[in-house]
Amino acid sequence: MPHVLVLDDDRAIRRTLEKFLEGEGYRVTTTGDAEEALAKAAGADLLLLDLGLPSMDGLDVLGHLRATDDGPSVIVISARDDMTSTIRAIQLGAHDYLVKPLDIERVRLTMRRALESRASSRALRFLASEPGRTFDPGTIVGRSPAVRELYKTIGAVSLNRASVLILGESGTGKELVARAIHRASTERERPFVAVNCSAFARELLESELFGHARGAFTGATSDRAGRLELADNGTLFLDEIAEIPIELQAKLLRVLQERNFERVGDARPIRLNARIVAATHRDLGAMIDKGTFRADLFYRLNVVVLRIPPLRERREDIPLLAGALLQKLGRELHKDVRQISPDAMALLERNDWPGNVRELENVLTRAIVLAKSPILTADLLPFGGSAAASGGDNPAQPDEMGSLRDVERAHILRVLEATAWNKRRACAILDIARPTLDRKLDEFGLSRPVR
Questions:
Q1: What total of structural domains would you count in the chain?
Q2: Residues 261, 337: one domain?
Q3: pLDDT, tens digit, for every residue of 357-386?
Q4: CA torsion, points 31, 33, 36, 38, in degrees to nearest 10?
Q5: DSSP secondary-structure letter at 128?
Q6: Residues 404 and 386 in one domain
Q7: Are residue 294 and residue 317 in the same domain, yes or no?
């Protein structure tokens, strides 16, 4: 029968787990001492490990076990409900990370899976990072089960250079996940190069990706390195990969297969050293059926898939997200808005957020700009039932309503004024590219006022 070792400094938890595990048919050893557990680990098949130990941090226990050939699979059971601990534990070889209070059914299922995949778990430990390694998790915020699983996957894929395909609706934070993978990897000091494939025409995208030689086309007055080359030994993030024209997909596929490429107008091969992380909000399977996306390119990219859940499927994360965004936006907009009222938070949690985190950020930006006190109240939200948001008791009459062009012009101007004409920030709020904003400014005759 499998031997399970339980390391937890809480005697009541040890007794509860011992009784449960013996009832499941396991041979059980329990201890509250890290040194004793390390001494007994070689004879165990599975370790249930608490992180908050008095004599040694549980992550240090994982670090010691990672160096052994015959160590047990490890399931972390901890009250620490944070991204940093979760990712670090997975990087150090933990099979899973369960947050207290424990769900017994979840424990039962996770233990069975851990024992079944013990060999692969050992392999993962050998691929783990060095003990002294630190990790900056970036700005991904959430504690929902879906986000915890995302943290674990980031920790696992960061240990190798396999291609990653990130799937998720617009506004879910696909680039944040790509950056988290890069920053968790051993190549985090190398470049992270992002390309929005939807922002360039076909000819420009080819030059942007591959670079060009002098004289390759009209206007190519000098040699220019492309993004594939600039990424060096780091990460190349291909955002909106589905927008690449079908003819350019074939060229990209060849690069991924052969791991080399040429600049436009130059036959000299250049080695591809970068890791490829791609992302899209589109249904690639449907695009393959329609012939607008190559199946062979999909299979080449589809090595590891990360699916980011939409915000409506993780509503429990909205208070955390809103709080983090409130601090960030308050600094950027120079507004001292410190809290969200309970009524406003309830509205935020009830909304479906078709634009996901980006839409949440835009709504909070508008509310902070309009706020006149340190508390963000429900009437500042566009769905908060205020006269400003809904028209109040005196809705506009048809002859008082402006055209769509008027509304668009007014909204762009309002966003620019709220951001002190910071075009980068305005583009993020409007969810448009910089060239699109510049074109709109010319079209509407808008320019920054002279102070």
A1: 4
A2: no
A3: 999 999 999 899 888 888 898 889 987 544
A4: 100
A5: S
A6: no
A7: no
